[in-house]
Design brief:
Layout lengths: L11 H7 L6 E3 L2 E3 L6 E5 L6 E6 L3 H16 L8 H17 L1 H12 L3 H23 L6 E2 L11 E9 L2 E5 L5 H15 L2 E5 L6 H13 L6 E3 L4 H10 L5 E5 L2 H14 L2 E5 L4 E5 L5 H13 L9 E7 H17 L18 H16 L3 E4 L14 E4 L6 H4 L6 E7 L2 H8 L4 E2 L1 E5 L3 H7 L7 E4 L14 E2 L2 E2 L4 H6 L2 E9 L1
Parallel strand pairs: 7-8, 7-10, 8-9, 10-11, 12-13, 12-18, 13-16, 15-16, 18-19
Antiparallel strand pairs: 1-2, 3-4, 5-6, 6-22, 11-21, 14-15, 17-20
The structure holds adenosine-5'-diphosphate.
Adenosine-5'-diphosphate binds next to helix 8 and helix 9.
Length: 502
């Protein structure tokens, strides 16, 4: 393993973690190799060098992890813990993540390619805050009582109430774009509810989840409450989803894999929530300050290198402002400094993998072939590392593939529109419905537009803002269910109705 190029840029704890010869699975509170001894390499996407060898969990490891989670749920001290004790453990975990935030941000940066400074300021802040927010819910899980009205026994006496109960063993499958953030979005409500978890990070970015496992143990969560299995989708994720011991699957990733997971879950009647892809519109109305709208639109697509499920990847500008806004976005795109995530001057890093870089560059070529005009960027940057230039495409038709399909990279398609009716229809004209932003100070038009947008979140004069209390998820093919907020807690709870004849 060669860490020579980055070692001097990272802190000692991150270097020590990365120097480990292999990163093992975390099952039942123990670190263990895969049963069949298999492992895989994880790369630094900025340099293409190998930064770690990671155990690859197979079906036997999945079985062990699910059994450990089941035992912790059914027999261990976890099931007997009071909500306030779960709250205390989650708060402790939040404190530990906060104390290790720099190390975690550096590891995330090297594994994923994103800026370490942004990982620290944004990703780790979200993780810490979300664990604290969810810790509070542990003590506020409530059923309800009601006056009974059993229609055929009105003379009888009953006491009726509902209980909320933890759903059981949760399989949490997370993607590579916000590895620790999305892991926290699953772990927080699952643990607040009293579930146990088998977490599978993405094969491109397995490292921060493993570091988190150490903090989970240090916080005092009993063995088996959280288990971490590294490995790829078909080898680890698929057997995990199909395991009959799993009670609920919580997945964030592509719509294609989400559908496979939904089908597999129904076979066992496993509960599932899916947070999937998007093709979110950024809608600029004609009263806007064009420079402010352009800055917002650029941030909406280029943040995290466009690898954001709710990235603002379709820009609709009222035609009188179109040329000006597109020119400004193109100028911002052309001026964005690309570089290694550990370089403080870099504002955009590489994409996560060669596969992803090729996919995104392939889409830019498809756009060109279908008649789009490249007004900024247009392809790979450099020969080493998976860098793609921030790209803006104009002369795009709504039917073009680049206007319909999720690219998941720094590629914006821009289209002019005439009026509100038209843009409302066009904004909804993809299979997705995750997010949308409207840029305007015309309250009347904004309020008329919001209900017409089929998306789980609508931002006004901002894009991709997140709050632990605000549910996040999709309409249409962008998913089923919600992460964040009380809505996410509900997805980890069953409701039991109790009738007592008295
Ligand atoms: P992307 O296309 O962005 O890599 P994916 O949806 O393929 O996103 O991956 C998201 C997560 O789902 C990753 O952890 C990946 O390993 C996992 N995954 C991929 N395929 C499957 C599958 N068939 N069953 C379960 N998990 C899967």
């Amino acid at each position: 393993m060669d860490l020579s190029e980055v070692k001097h840029l990272i802190s000692e704890p991150a270097a020590a973690f990365l120097s480990r010869p292999t990163h093992r699975l975390f099952i039942g509170g123990q670190w263990t190799d895969a049963a069949d001894g298999r492992s895989f390499e994880t790369l630094n996407p900025a340099t293409e060098e190998v930064i770690g060898r990671v155990a690859s969990a197979g079906p036997a490891d999945v079985d062990r992890a699910v059994k450990a989670a089941r035992a912790a749920f059914d027999q261990g001290p976890w099931g007997r813990m009071r909500p306030v004790e779960r709250q205390r453990l989650l708060l402790k975990l939040a404190d530990l993540v906060e104390a290790h935030a720099q190390t975690l941000a550096e590891i995330e940066s090297i594994d994923n390619g994103k800026s370490a400074a942004i990982a620290r300021a944004v990703d780790m802040a979200i993780v810490v805050d979300f664990f604290r927010y969810m810790a509070g819910w542990a003590t506020k899980i409530e059923g309800s009582t009601s006056e009974h009205s059993v229609p055929y026994a009105l003379q009888a006496e009953f006491v009726t109430y509902t209980r909320r109960e933890a759903v059981g063993v949760v399989a949490a499958i997370v993607p590579w774009n916000f590895p620790l953030v999305v892991a926290a979005w699953k772990l927080g409500p699952a643990l607040a509810a009293g579930c146990t978890v088998v977490l599978k990070p993405a094969e491109q970015t397995p490292l921060t989840a493993l570091y988190l496992a150490e903090l989970i143990a240090e916080a005092g969560f009993p063995a088996g409450v959280v288990n971490i299995l590294t490995g790829d989708g078909p080898g680890t994720g698929a057997p995990l989803v199909r395991h009959p011991g799993v009670d609920k699957v919580s997945f964030t990733g592509s719509t294609e894999v989400g559908k496979l997971i939904g089908h597999a879950s129904v076979d066992n009647m496993t509960r599932f929530t899916l947070e999937l892809g998007g093709k979110s519109p950024v809608i600029v109305l004609d009263d806007c300050d064009p420079a402010a709208a352009a800055a917002g639109a650029a941030n909406a697509i280029f943040f995290n290198h466009g690898q954001v499920c709710c990235a603002g990847s379709r820009l609709f500008v009222q035609k009188k402002l179109f040329d000006r806004v597109v020119a400004d976005v193109a100028q911002i795109a052309s001026a964005l400094p690309l570089g290694h995530g550990l370089d403080p001057a870099a504002q955009m890093g590489p994409l996560v993998s060669r596969e992803q870089m090729q996919r995104v560059c392939g889409y830019i070529d498809i756009g060109r072939a279908q008649g789009a005009q490249v007004v900024a960027g247009g392809g790979r940057q450099g020969e080493r590392g998976f860098f793609v230039q921030p790209t803006v495409l104009a002369d795009v038709q709504r039917s073009h593939r680049v206007a319909q399909e999720e690219i998941f990279g720094p590629v914006l398609v821009a289209m002019p529109y005439d009026d509100l009716d038209q843009v409302a229809a066009w904004a909804n004209d993809t299979p997705y419905g995750l997010g949308a932003s409207i840029w305007s100070n015309d309250l009347s038009k904004v309020h008329r537009l919001i209900p017409r947008i089929k998306a789980g979140t609508v931002w006004v004069n901002c894009h991709s803002a997140l709050d632990p209390a605000m549910p996040f998820g999709g309409y249409k093919q962008s998913g089923i269910g919600r992460d964040l907020g009380k809505a996410s807690l509900d997805a980890y709870l069953e409701t039991k109705s109790v009738f007592i004849a008295v």
